[in-house]
Amino acid sequence: MKIKRQGIYALILAGLLLPLLFGGCGGDKQDPPKAGEEFVIPADAFALENLQGEDLEDRFSLTESLTQLEQLREILISFRELTEECRGKISPETLREVGNTGWEMQHLGFHNLPNTLEGTLRLQDYEIKKLEFTLAKEQYEKGEITLADVEEAQAAFLAVREGMQEFLKAYTIAD
User: Fold this and answer.
1) In 3-state terms, what secondary structure has residue 90?
2) What is the mean pLDDT of residues 39-65?
3) Cα–Cα dist 110/80, whole Å
4) What gap in Å lies between CA 109 and CA 115, rounded to an integer?
5) What kind and span of H or E run contains 21?
6) Considering the entire predicted model, what is its pTM?
7) Which residues contact 164 (CB under 8 A, 6 or more apart)?
8) ∠34-40-45 over CA atoms, to 5°?
């Protein structure tokens, strides 16, 4: 049995490695890009019909996302309260079928899930503002933007940094 297993492993390994050895790792070979074409950023052409006239940046801003997240927290609290009201009136089987009605989900998950989402949104915004500030500093040093522009980027970064710090001070994990 041991020999058969080793033989099977050898065949699997050979099947994985042989194409790499004889075909290379490159897949389809392409001509190298011409000078200046290496880093072309495509134009943003998003389908915006479903935004009902809103701007992409407004609809999916940190502020809008945090507002929606607060509404989600309220919905989860309402669902928890409704579940408690229904206990004893609805069979345990029906509650299980509905899903997300157990104590752990409603008291731990309903607390942790929105907090994790908020942390993710805030961290992404922090990282973006940090990159924008870094870029602004470099552009200022090259004379491409004004002092006012770099100060604006710095102020935005510092504000988001402070918001991230406040969030982390208040952040709790229910377990």
Assistant:
1) strand
2) 88
3) 9
4) 10
5) helix 2-23
6) 0.73
7) 122, 123, 125, 126
8) 140
